[in-house]
Amino acid sequence: MEQITLKSPLDMHLHLRDGEVLKSVAKYTAKSFSGALVMPNLNPPILNVDSALAYKQRILEAMGEEKFNPMMSLYLTESLDRNELLKAKDNGICFLKLYPKGATTGSENGVSEILNPKILEILEIAQELDLILSIHGESNGFVLEREAEFHQVFIELAETFPRLKIIFEHLSDRRSIAVVEKYPNLYATLTLHHISMSLDDVIGGALNPHAFCKPILKTPKDRDALREVALNAHSKFSFGSDSAPHLQGSKENAKGAAGIFSAPILLPTLAMIFEAHDKMDNLERFVSLNAQRIYGIHASDKQVILVKKPMAIPHEIHGIVPLNAGGSLTWSFG
Ligand code: DOR
Ligand code: ZN
Questions:
Q1: Which of 24, 189, 210, 300 would be 34's cystine partner, CB 3.0–4.6 Å?
Q2: One-letter-per-residue 3-state SS of 241-267
Q3: Which residue puts its alpha carbon closest to atom 3 of ligand 1?
């Protein structure tokens, strides 16, 4: 049977939540990835090192026997200071996540004015300590223009802090690719959903709340351009799923929560896409080697085997509807 082995795959943007949801979703990431960058937008958010370390412990417990490296991030607010950032570094926490206030799920505590003196002071220290800044890059303008309207912030930060690694998270608009390419300290993550779906999948037929996410899926041209970047394993881009579980009720009722739960199907679906475009040789660079190089992560000895065998996607997993629920894949786990 045809099979491929991926060495030390990494998911560089992941929501694991907490409590019962964490326990339900952890195993899907544990069996697919050697590590993941875990997002801090819990309720309440992970604002300091002590809460990040306690959360890391709960994640490790939820991962059970699987060897897994949860890379923790701190939610960037004005309350961070040099001592806390030094403590983060000492405890192996290397990521700050910046949410513009109100931009997405769990961003209520985000930053309202990014280029203000206090935030710039924190970023100066982050640069000095070699921390990495992950950004949800959206303005509060018209939904399809939000990412493009945010370019200027990326540019100003990249120019002000040339030695700070800045990650343009879940890049969704093809106009953003050139921005990442232009600045040596800018990098990006790409999700499965933004490289494989468009706004038509959300509102082109019957309304599909399970394909609703922030940043919103864009045009077919954006999808195709992003997919090319992934298929070529562009050296400034790594894989970050933004798998974001919400209970079925909060997706389908009036709350309309943004977030796509893709963790159970990520690698088999990527294998299908890379195979269909005759780029299977680039898959390991996209899901593993690029992240190792960009973020300075050591590969673990974990290997994930995928086999060419049909896999049915469940309709629902512990009350959470996964991406492409009820569908099937031509690749599955070995
Ligand atoms: O769709 C999204 N869901 N985008 C985000 O930025 C956050 C995420 C979530 O936490 O649900
Ligand atoms: Zn996210």
A1: 300
A2: CCECCCCHHHHHCCCCCCCEECHHHHH
A3: 259
- Extract the tokens encoding 142: 């018209």
Which bin fits 281, alpha (ψ -120 to 50), beta or left (φ > 0)?
alpha
What residues contact 188, with CB distance under 8 A and at least 6 apart? Answer: 167, 168, 169, 171, 176, 180, 236, 237, 238
**Span from the CA of 287 to the centroid of ligand 2 (angstroms):** 17
Distance 102 CA to ligand 1 centre (A): 11
- Write the pLDDT tens digit of every residue in 281-314: 999 999 999 999 999 999 999 999 999 999 999 9
Q: What is the pLDDT of residues 9-41, one digit of tens each?
A: 999 999 999 999 999 999 999 999 999 999 999
Ligand 1 close to Cβ of residue 189 (< 6 A): no
State whether CATH 3.20.20.140 applies to domain 8-262. yes
Q: What residues have their beta carbon closer than 5 A to ion ligand 2?
A: 242
* pTM of the complete model: 0.98
Q: Which residue has the tokens 């306690």?
A: 54
How far is ligand 2, taken at its centre, from the CA of residue 13, in Å? 6
Token pair recorded at residue 321: 């509807």
Q: Judge whether residue 1 has pLDDT over 90.
A: no
Q: Ligand 1, from 41, 140, 189, 248: best to mutate by most atoms within 8 Å of Cβ?
A: 41
- Domains of the chain, by residue range, sit at 8-262
